[in-house]
């Protein structure tokens, strides 16, 4: 079994390289993985990190410390992987860039995706009793597209919506639920969403291909998502299983539709019981594609996997940034 020296850098704040992930599971199935930040052969990076250093007006991150590594950028955000600085990219956009790019939307990296592949028993009127709460709004990011906050206020004016995230919070119910149950944050969220008929599931931004866990989490919990984000959401999910904001001329019309469905048990159950994935999908196409993509990077000798330009202006940025970081580290140690 081939040994690969791997390092993760510039990942989101809660990322734990030792925790199981879809990428980690795939790699460990085929290779002996050694995690190290000392001269790694492969670097998986994202768009986070301190971002404190700028050279020639370009925002540079820690992955530039490893100019000799094969770099795979996985954004996790609505950004294109920069193939000038990385050999390969994993992102949201529907692109064909030879063997250098693979679309793997964020929701497919979540374990909840596997749950949606399993058959589900239909729910009945007895399952939607008066104890089921109306709708929740659970977000942290206050820099999302304005439509998300606007819709919250429009729907909240019609019927109270519980906002349990750090943004626009009007209830501590989710925090209390997690404390009382002792569940991990993701399981506590899923368990909590199951209490609601509807979940506002707007993305941070609207862009073709950009589908995160926003729509998937309520589908797993059997709460009907009210979605706005990816105009091509039908590529990833069955639009009969949620209320698609792209089908309505305005946010007011979308809010009116939610209220209509809230008052019609038959219409609500039809959405709730619709298969969550596109018709006929019974496998994990995104994860199968991810496995093929990773194998064609990690299986051949390292030299054969190199794709990005190593010389010219791009190469100089890598080299200069690495030298800058070494000088800065020595200065810190001197003081």
Number of helices: 11
Structural class: alpha/beta
User: Would you identify the regions where 5 or more consecutive residues have pLDDT less than 50?
Assistant: 51-58, 329-335
By DSSP, the count of extended strands is: 13
- Morphology: elongated
Strand order of the largest sheet: 2-1-3-6-7-8
Q: In sequence order, what are the helices and strands, one letter per element?
A: EHEEEEEEEHEHEHHEHEEHHHHH
CATH topology of the largest domain: Rossmann fold
- Mean pLDDT figure: 88
Report on the structure:
This protein has two domains: 3-109 and 285-334, Rossmann fold (3-Layer(aba) Sandwich); 118-272, Glycosyl transferase family 10, C-terminal domain (Rossmann fold, 3-Layer(aba) Sandwich). The protein has eleven helices and 13 strands. It has helices at residues 22-30, 112-116, 146-158, 173-181, 185-193, 216-221, 251-262, 265-272, 285-298, 302-305, 313-334, and strands at residues 3-9, 32-35, 42-45, 53-55, 58-60, 70-74, 88-91, 101-103, 133-137, 162-163, 196-202, 224-228, 243-244. The chain has a six-stranded parallel sheet, covered by helices on one side. Strands 10-9-11-12-13 form a five-stranded parallel sheet. Strands 4-5 form a two-stranded antiparallel ribbon. Helix 3 (146-158) packs across helix 7 (251-262) and helix 4 crosses helix 5 (185-193). The longest helix has 22 residues, at 313-334. It is elongated, with a radius of gyration of 22 Å.
């Amino acid at each position: 079994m081939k040994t690969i020296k791997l390092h993760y850098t510039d990942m989101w704040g809660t990322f734990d390289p030792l925790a199981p992930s879809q990428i980690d599971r795939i790699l460990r199935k085929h290779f002996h993985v050694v995690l190290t930040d000392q001269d790694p052969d492969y670097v998986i990076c994202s768009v986070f990190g301190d971002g404190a250093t700028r050279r020639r007006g370009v925002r540079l991150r820690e992955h530039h410390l490893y100019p000799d590594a094969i770099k795979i950028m996985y954004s996790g955000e609505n950004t294109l992987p920069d193939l000038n600085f990385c050999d390969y990219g994993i992102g949201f956009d529907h692109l064909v860039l030879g063997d250098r790019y693979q679309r793997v939307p964020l929701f497919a990296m979540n374990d909840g995706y596997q749950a949606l592949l399993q058959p589900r028993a239909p729910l009945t009127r007895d399952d939607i009793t008066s104890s089921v709460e109306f709708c929740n709004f659970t977000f942290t990011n206050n820099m999302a597209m304005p439509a998300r906050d606007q819709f919250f206020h429009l729907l909240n004016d019609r019927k109270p919506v519980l906002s349990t995230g750090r943004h626009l919070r009007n209830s501590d119910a989710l925090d209390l639920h997690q404390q009382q149950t002792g569940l991990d944050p993701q399981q506590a969220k899923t368990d909590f969403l199951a209490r609601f008929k509807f979940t506002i599931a707007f993305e941070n931004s609207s862009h073709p291909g950009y589908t995160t866990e926003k729509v998937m989490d309520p589908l797993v919990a059997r709460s009907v998502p009210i979605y706005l984000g990816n105009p091509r959401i039908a590529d990833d999910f069955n639009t009969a299983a949620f209320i698609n904001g792209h089908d309505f001329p305005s946010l007011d019309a979308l809010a009116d539709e939610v209220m209509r469905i809230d008052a019609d048990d038959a219409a609500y159950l039809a959405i709730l019981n619709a298969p969550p994935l596109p018709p006929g999908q019974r496998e994990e196409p995104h994860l199968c594609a991810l496995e093929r993509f990773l194998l064609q990077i990690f299986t051949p000798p390292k030299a054969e996997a190199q794709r990005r330009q190593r010389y010219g202006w791009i190469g100089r940025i890598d080299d200069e940034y690495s030298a800058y970081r070494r000088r800065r580290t020595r200065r810190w140690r001197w003081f």
